[in-house]
Write a structure and sequence with these properties.
single chain
Length: 343
């Protein structure tokens, strides 16, 4: 483990893990977050493809959720309210009148505990008490990062509860396939296994509609540059911060295709599979002021892209959306699997 500053009055470390073919990553228990992910290009040259910061204090100073495990309910809940079993619960409101990514002190602000750490994996655990940010039930949380023998990075997030509650944990890594310090991702190519998306209001709250991606800037059924897709749709002045509804059939292991993200110049490409019904894609369109990143890099608009596999935003207030309810005796289990290849 390597010293990484302090958070919540406690020292913080980063923990390295490695995989085949030169793949390596670093994880910190602060926010159970991915700090580094080194991937080769077509010439075998490694680059760190996730945005982040150099110390735990820097993550506290820049609330962009870089690499974090977010929850209890990641994404937005309008008014910070939901009803469960006839009871209205008021959550912490940390984005104007709304609730975002679990509130001011969500899972991304916790000092998780290292339960197990080996050369190729790390497992982190945390507790979320009854009433934490307004949520019912006490939850036991686990996040595991693991390189498989086949060269995939798998992220597993799980939770159990003492009382009916909501759970929608996400990993909030920002990817730039040319390298975290390479500038804009708009010339990189995206493909998403989705025929529909959920539109949002000017406040980025989902309307409850499910619309076709056909003939819109949301159509990534075939790979296309982000810049080309954005230019085709006048509604995308601040680019993407939307949920896509994944449609692909499950593979034999219960995961289904989600997205492929490729940098044609370097040849780096990632393919993501998941067991979740949606994916939130955000391209830093609202990052109107530079953010100080790793190694003195200034992250600007469009510096990275998130692939936050998830339940749909505000699902407790839209009963037609997939449920985020978790009851005692059940286990919430969220899986993401990234594979990497030169393109």
């Amino acid at each position: 483990m390597i010293p990484f500053g302090s958070a919540n009055g406690q020292p913080v470390q980063i923990c390295p893990i490695s995989g085949p073919g030169g793949l390596r990553a670093a994880v910190t228990p602060f926010g159970a977050r991915l700090v580094q992910l080194w991937v080769p290009d077509r010439g075998g040259h490694l680059a760190d493809i996730v945005l982040g910061h150099d110390t735990a204090q820097d993550y506290l100073g820049h609330p962009t959720y870089c690499g974090a495990t977010c929850g209890r309910y990641a994404n937005r809940i309008a008014g910070g309210q939901f009803r469960l079993d006839g009871v209205t619960h008021q959550l912490d409101r940390n984005e104007g009148p709304n609730h975002l990514h679990g509130g001011h002190s969500g899972f991304d602000k916790k000092n998780w505990q290292v339960a197990d750490h080996g050369p190729h994996h790390i497992t982190l655990t945390a507790l979320s008490d009854e009433g934490d940010m307004g949520y019912p039930g006490a939850c036991t949380l686990t996040t595991t990062y693991r390189f498989t023998e086949a060269g995939a990075l798998r992220i597993d997030m799980s939770a159990t509860t003492t009382r009916a509650t909501l759970i929608n944990m996400v990993n909030h890594a920002y990817f730039n396939m040319a390298g975290h310090d390479a500038g804009s991702v708009l010339n990189q190519h995206l493909q998403v296994a989705a025929n529909h998306y959920t539109p949002v209001t000017k406040d980025l709250l989902t309307t409850g509609e499910v619309l076709s991606v056909a003939d819109t800037g949301f159509d990534f059924r075939l790979p296309r540059p982000l810049s080309q897709a954005m230019a085709s749709d006048h509604t995308l002045s601040d680019a993407y911060d939307h949920n896509w509804c994944l449609t692909a059939a499950q593979d034999h292991d219960g995961l289904h295709p989600c997205a492929i993200f490729t940098d044609p110049a370097s040849g780096r490409s990632l393919t993501l599979r998941t067991n979740q019904p949606g994916v939130q894609i955000y391209v830093c369109g609202q990052m109107h002021h530079p953010v100080a990143g790793k190694g003195g890099t200034a992250y600007r608009r469009f510096a990275g892209l998130t692939l936050e596999t998830q339940r749909f935003p505000c699902s407790p207030n839209h009963p037609q959306f997939p449920s985020a309810r978790l009851d005692p005796g059940q286990t919430y289990a969220h899986a993401m699997e990234f594979t990497f290849s030169p393109a």
